[in-house]
C-alpha cells in the first residue's frame, strides 16, 4: 500500500513545504506588499494537506486525536481551498474581474460554512459539495478567459509575464476538464499524479507571477526611496547650512520635517553686523509637492533680496511669483527685518502664526500680528508692516504651526498657552537651550504612539 502511494505522499509533502516557505518569505518581506504570496502559500499548503489526508497510508501513523479529526479537516480544506485560491487571484485582478472574484469569495465562504455545518451535523454534504464544484468551475472559466485573451489580460490583470501564467492555467484547466469528463462519460479515472502535476504547473506559474510582482514592488519602492533621498539632499542644500555669525544677534534654528522632504522653509538675508532679514514659510500639504514650492520660494527670494529692508515688498514680491507659478498651492510666511543699529524690527506676515517677542526688561511676552493674505490667493495682495522696538536682552520667536498644533491623548493642542509657558520658564536660558527644551516639551505632549503630524520650524533670535 505504501509503495503505491509514495507519489501522493511526496507530492503532498512538497506542496505543504512550498506553502510554508511562501508564507515565511512573505512574512520576512511583508513591506513589499506580499499578500499574493501569503494566499498562494496557503493555497499550496491546503492542497498538500488535502493530498496527505486522502492518502490511506498516512492515516495509520497519525496520533489518535488527528485520526478522528482527519475527516473534518479534509472536509474543511475541500471547501476553503477555493476561498484561498480566489484570494490569491484577487491580488492580481483589476476592475470588474476583481469585483467578480470578491463575490466569488463571499459565495465560496458561505458554501463552506454551510457545507461544514451539514457535514458535522448530518455526516452528508453532497449538495454543498456540488455547489462548491460549480463555483470552482465558474471561477476556472472566468480566470481562463481573462488570462488567455490578451485584451482582457491587459485590462483585468496585473501581470509581469502573461505567457507563463497562461500556460500554467491552461494545463490546469485542461486536466480538470479531462478528469471530470472522463469520469462521467468514459468511466475512466485519470491517475492522481496527473492532478498533482497540473496543479503544480498552475502553482509554479502563479508563484512566478507572485514573486515577480513582489520583487517589482520592491524595485519600485527602492526607486522611490532613492528619489526621496535625492529630494531630501536637494532640500537640505537650499536651507541655510548654519546661522549667521553676528556680534549683535544670537540665533538658534531648528528644522524637523515630518517626512523625508518638507514644505517648511527658512532663510537669512544678512547685510552687515547690524542688519538681518529672516524669512519663515510654511507651504500647505506635505511631501514632495510642498517641497517643490519651498524650493521655488528659495529662487523667488533672489528676486526680492534688493528689498530686504522692506517686509511689505519682500512678501508682496514672493506672493506675485507664487500666485502665478504655484497653481493654487497656498503658503503662509513671516518676514522680519532686524536693525540693531536703530534698535527696531520691521515685521510682516502672510497668514502666519504671530511673532513672539519676549521683553526682558519688562518681563513680559508680546504677541505681534501683522498679517495679509496667504500666498497664492490674490496676486496683488498687500502686507501691512509693524514696527517693533527691540532692546538688548529681548528675544524674538518665528515658527510654523507644527509647534502649536500637536495634540495630546485627550485631543488638546499644544497651543499658544503651552508655547508661552515654555518661553517664560526658559527666559534666562540661551536660545539654543530654549529651542531644545521646547521641542522636548512637544514630544512629551504628543502620545508616544503618534508620529509627528506636521513639519516644524523654529527660529529664536536673541538681541545682544
Short recap of the structure:
With about 475 residues, the protein is α+β, with helices and mostly antiparallel strands. It contains twelve helices and eleven strands. The chain folds into two domains: about 1-225, Rhopdopsin 7-helix transmembrane proteins, CATH 1.20.1070; about 240-464, PPM-type phosphatase domain (Phosphatase 2c, domain 1, 4-Layer Sandwich), CATH 3.60.40.10.
User: How confident overall, as mean pLDDT?
Assistant: 85
Strand content: 15-25%
Q: In terms of quaternary structure, what is this?
A: single chain
Tell me the helix content.
55-70%
Write the CATH fold name of the largest domain.
Rhopdopsin 7-helix transmembrane proteins
Return residue spans where pLDDT drops below 50 for at least 5 consecutive residues: none
Radius of gyration: 34 Å
Give the total of beta strands.
11
- What sequence of helices (H) and strands (E) makes up the elements? HHHHHHHHEEEHHEEEEEEEHHE
CATH-derived architecture of the largest domain = Up-down Bundle
User: How many structural domains in the coordinates?
Assistant: 2
User: What structural class do you assign from the helix and strand content?
Assistant: alpha+beta
Distance between the termini: 96 Å
Number of helices: 12
Overall 3D shape: elongated
The biggest beta sheet is recorded as: 6 strands, mixed
Q: CATH class of the largest domain, anyone?
A: Mainly Alpha
Amino acid at each position: 500500500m505504501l509503495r503505491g502511494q509514495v507519489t501522493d505522499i511526496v507530492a503532498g509533502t512538497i506542496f505543504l513545504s512550498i506553502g510554508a516557505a511562501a508564507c515565511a518569505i512573505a512574512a520576512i518581506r511583508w513591506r513589499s506588499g506580499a499578500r499574493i504570496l501569503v494566499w498562494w502559500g496557503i493555497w499550496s499548503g491546503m492542497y498538500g494537506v488535502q493530498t496527505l489526508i486522502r492518502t490511506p497510508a498516512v492515516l495509520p501513523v497519525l496520533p489518535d486525536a488527528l485520526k478522528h479529526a482527519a475527516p473534518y479537516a479534509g472536509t474543511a480544506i475541500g471547501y476553503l481551498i477555493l476561498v484561498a485560491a480566489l484570494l490569491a487571484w484577487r491580488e492580481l485582478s483589476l476592475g470588474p474581474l476583481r469585483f467578480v472574484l470578491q463575490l466569488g469569495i463571499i459565495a465560496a465562504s458561505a458554501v463552506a460554512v454551510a457545507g461544514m455545518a451539514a457535514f458535522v451535523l448530518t455526516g452528508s454534504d453532497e449538495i454543498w459539495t456540488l455547489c462548491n464544484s460549480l463555483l470552482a468551475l465558474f471561477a476556472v472559466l472566468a480566470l481562463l478567459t481573462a488570462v488567455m485573451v490578451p485584451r482582457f489580460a491587459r485590462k483585468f490583470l496585473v501581470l509581469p509575464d502573461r505567457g507563463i501564467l497562461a500556460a500554467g492555467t491552461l494545463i490546469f484547466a485542461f486536466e480538470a476538464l479531462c478528469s471530470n469528463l472522463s469520469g462521467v462519460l468514459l468511466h475512466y479515472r485519470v491517475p492522481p499524479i496527473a492532478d498533482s502535476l497540473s496543479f503544480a504547473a498552475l502553482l509554479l506559474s502563479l508563484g512566478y507571477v507572485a514573486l515577480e510582482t513582489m520583487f517589482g514592488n520592491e524595485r519600485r519602492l527602492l526607486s522611490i526611496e532613492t528619489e526621496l533621498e535625492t529630494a531630501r539632499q536637494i532640500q537640505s542644500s537650499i536651507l541655510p547650512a548654519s546661522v549667521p555669525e553676528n556680534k549683535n544677534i544670537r540665533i538658534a534654528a531648528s528644522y524637523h520635517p515630518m517626512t523625508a522632504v518638507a514644505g517648511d522653509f527658512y532663510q537669512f538675508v544678512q547685510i552687515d553686523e547690524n542688519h538681518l532679514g529672516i524669512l519663515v514659510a510654511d507651504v500647505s500639504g506635505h511631501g514632495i509637492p510642498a517641497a517643490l514650492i519651498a524650493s521655488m520660494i528659495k529662487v523667488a527670494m533672489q528676486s526680492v533680496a534688493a528689498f530686504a529692508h522692506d517686509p511689505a515688498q519682500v512678501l508682496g514680491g514672493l506672493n506675485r511669483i507664487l500666485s502665478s507659478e504655484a497653481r493654487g498651492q497656498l503658503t503662509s510666511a513671516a518676514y522680519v527685518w532686524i536693525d540693531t543699529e536703530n534698535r527696531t524690527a520691521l515685521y510682516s506676515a502672510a497668514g502666519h502664526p504671530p511673532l513672539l517677542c519676549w521683553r526682558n526688561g519688562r518681563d513680559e511676552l508680546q504677541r505681534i500680528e501683522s498679517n495679509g493674505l496667504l500666498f497664492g490667493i490674490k496676486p496683488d495682495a498687500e502686507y501691512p508692516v509693524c514696527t517693533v522696538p527691540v532692546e538688548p536682552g529681548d528675544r524674538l520667536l518665528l515658527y510654523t504651526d507644527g509647534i502649536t498644533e500637536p495634540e495630546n491623548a485627550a485631543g488638546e493642542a499644544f497651543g499658544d498657552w503651552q508655547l508661552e509657558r515654555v518661553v517664560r520658564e526658559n527666559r534666562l536660558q540661551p536660545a539654543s537651550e530654549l529651542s531644545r527644551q521646547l521641542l522636548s516639551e512637544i514630544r512629551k505632549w504628543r502620545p508616544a504612539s503618534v508620529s509627528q503630524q506636521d513639519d516644524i520650524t523654529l527660529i529664536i533670535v536673541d538681541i545682544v
